[in-house]
Design goal:
By secondary structure, the protein is mostly helical. The chain has 23 helices and nine strands. The strands form four sheets. It has a three-stranded antiparallel beta sheet with strand order 3-9-8, with no helix packed on it. Strands 1-2 form a two-stranded antiparallel sheet. Strands 4-5 form a two-stranded antiparallel ribbon. The protein starts with a helix and ends in a 10-residue tail after the last helix.
């Protein structure tokens, strides 16, 4: 340990400087926010939106065009994450966006993209959301889009499908989409640009609905789609359909969320904008302008390129930076604390639909999103406030933490785990409906979120939490993989899940602890790369590629180190080698890789803050443990 202490000590000045540098991402209101980047799909959709509306910012469009071209793979397609394999749906949208932005189909890069798409079955092989975009532009028949009747808004609670049986992100995307799919508007498309060259079968003849997967449920639901398509228009009256339209508009307006947008996520904001704009009576033009502003706030514009973020992450970023500053010590974080207290949610959102008489609490992921507090973010912020208040003894924080404690416990699912936004959101048969070909319609409990909740409840050291803790422990232990790891739903992947879990279990005593930790640490040590770091690729979410690694990254190396020290491995050679990896290149941490996910296999994320605040948290934590001669952390992260 002396060697490790000496190594870190020699970088004290650089570490303190690096921590101070993070203030460039701090806003005057007292929070941190870093860029959040997805794949090419979101910026492609932004260009499509401009042409749908017929409102085109030429300069911005040209910058997004540059961005999209910079992300194209050598085979002509576009990947879902950095250095990943090309995806046909992402490629179709990127090609269409580039053609709309003025690139000729004869352009060398466009020809390359066209060849990739046609070689892989043509645009007709696109997923559901891409097909919807193509239908809006008249490039494909609406019959090629799964049937989702407008009456869904009034499906009763007991029905096998209703909007509260699916995840918050699916709900906010689907509800306005029901109106769009019912009214079938046609894009303004002022230049009349199409992509017929991408189809093998002409788009107007593409009518086949593909099953979501190969399971028997999917085949049944695909057959059911054909029946409902002919049945529903006949069995419900025009009066009831009009009621459904008004109910959807009421639902959207209630949750519009000002300039932070419906659900705080780009796809839902876009659908809300289109749904409000196509009202025949033009009643919602004020709200349409608000929607446009909410979408434009997601744009990141630089001198030569621009892209659109899927959402923003200030609560998440600020929570982690808060822990960094507490671990660094002697830092004033009062402004962060005050900002969190202002942002606490005080209303009941959609999460309370299936569990009445619960008190509100928690924090969103974005600046504002009161209907959708984030369980993971709430646990993270709760741990930060709890640690801060051990010295301050602020009554406002004590009361806030009590609300947080009660809300976290109330969000626990029956199996002992926690989902990200909802309770018992686990009707898995719904992932087999044709609309759900992305496989992420639901928000079931996951190990990483559950581990963070467990960390918060254990850190509080409150006997009232014991029943919930034991249920959570049982769930987490049941989810350990054969190789000793845990799956990472929101971070890539098994390294993330294993770190999150060990951070929680470190604070507990239980009979199997020694065996569980031995298997987990063996997994983490086996994943260390020859350069001393750790890495795990987005492909690791595919069967047969578990724990697949191409290169080391600062964020994943940090998670592995945090996991090892939580398991009492501070004095191991693997930790020393990992620390040396983080300290090389004068702390110039850069990360091209996408080390997070929105939906595994479908939608990947790159948090621009991860390569900074996770290495800082790791190195400051190790420095403190060495200084205090404490072998293991005493807090939940």
């Amino acid at each position: 340990m002396y060697t490790l202490k000496k190594i870190i000590k020699s970088f004290d000045t650089e570490l303190n400087k690096k921590a101070k540098e993070q203030n460039k991402n701090k806003l005057k209101e007292g929070c941190f926010v870093y860029e959040l980047e997805a794949d090419s799909t979101i910026p492609s959709e932004y260009i499509l939106l401009m042409h749908f509306l017929g409102e085109i910012d030429i300069d911005l469009e040209k910058k997004i065009q540059h961005y999209l071209l910079s992300k194209q793979n050598k085979d002509g397609g576009w990947p879902l994450f950095f250095n990943g394999e090309s995806d046909i749906s992402a490629s179709v949208k990127a090609y269409y966006a580039l053609k709309l932005s003025g690139l000729s189909p004869t352009n060398k890069l466009m020809k390359l993209a066209q060849n990739f798409i046609v070689k892989n079955g043509g645009a007709e092989q696109s997923n559901v959301f891409t097909r919807i975009s193509l239908a809006l532009f008249g490039q494909i028949s609406w019959e090629a889009v799964p049937y989702m009747p407008i009456e869904i808004i009034n499906f009763p609670k007991w029905f096998p499908f209703n909007i509260y049986k699916i995840s918050y992100w699916s709900r906010t995307v689907l509800t306005p989409l029901l109106l769009i799919m019912y009214k079938k508007p046609l894009a303004n498309n002022p230049n009349g640009i199409g992509i017929e060259e991408l189809f093998i079968t002409p788009g107007k003849f593409v009518k086949e609905i593909k099953p979501a997967d190969n399971k028997s449920f999917s085949v049944f639901f695909t057959f059911l789609d054909k029946i409902l398509r002919s049945l529903f228009p006949k069995i419900f009256s025009r009066k009831f359909k009009k009621k459904c339209i008004e109910d959807i508009y009421s639902w959207i307006l209630k949750r519009l969320n000002g300039e932070d947008g419906l659900g705080g996520i780009f796809p839902a904001m876009v659908n809300a904008l289109i749904a409000l704009q196509i009202d025949e009576e033009q009643r919602f033009m004020k709200q349409v302008e608000i929607c446009k502003k909410s979408i434009n706030k997601l744009i990141v514009e630089n001198k030569n390129y621009a892209y659109c973020q899927p959402c923003v992450s200030p609560i998440w970023d600020t929570g982690w930076m808060g822990h960094v500053l507490l671990e660094k010590e002697n830092e004033n974080v009062d402004d962060l604390v005050e900002w969190f207290l202002k942002k606490e949610i005080k209303i009941n959102g959609d999460w309370s639909y299936n569990k009445k008489n619960l008190n509100p609490g928690g924090w969103a992921f974005q600046f504002n999103n009161d209907y959708y507090p984030d369980v993971d973010d709430t646990a993270l912020v709760g741990m930060f406030l709890d640690r801060y208040n051990r010295k301050e003894k602020n009554k406002k924080i004590v009361d806030c933490l009590e609300r947080t404690r009660r809300w976290i416990i109330s969000m626990q699912s029956k199996n002992g785990g926690w989902g990200a936004f909802d309770i018992d959101n686990d009707k898995f048969y719904l992932n087999s409906i044709p609309f759900a070909d992305h496989g992420a319609l639901l928000d079931p409990p996951t190990v990483d979120v559950s581990a963070r909740c467990l960390s918060f409840l254990i850190q509080q050291n409150d006997k009232r939490n014991e029943t919930s803790i034991q249920k959570g422990l049982k769930y987490i232990l049941s989810e350990q993989e054969k190789d000793g790891s845990w799956f990472g739903r929101w971070g890539t992947n098994y390294i993330y899940g294993t770190w999150s879990t060990l951070s929680a279990l470190n604070l507990l005593d239980f009979p199997e602890k020694e065996k569980v930790f031995a298997r987990a640490t063996h997994y983490l040590k086996s994943m260390q790369r020859s350069d001393g770091g750790w890495g795990e690729d987005g492909k690791s979410y595919y069967k047969g590629f578990e724990s697949y690694s191409k290169n080391s990254t600062p964020s994943q190396t940090s998670w592995a180190l945090l996991g090892l020290i939580a398991a009492g491995q501070l004095d191991s050679k693997e930790v020393e080698h990992g620390v040396k990896y983080l300290l090389k290149n004068n702390l110039n941490w850069k990360e091209e890789d996408f080390t997070a996910v929105g939906f595994p296999k479908v939608f990947y994320l790159k948090y621009h803050g991860y390569a900074s605040y996770f290495p800082l948290l790791t190195l400051f934590k190790i420095r403190n443990l060495l200084t205090k001669n404490s072998p293991e952390p005493i807090y939940g992260v």
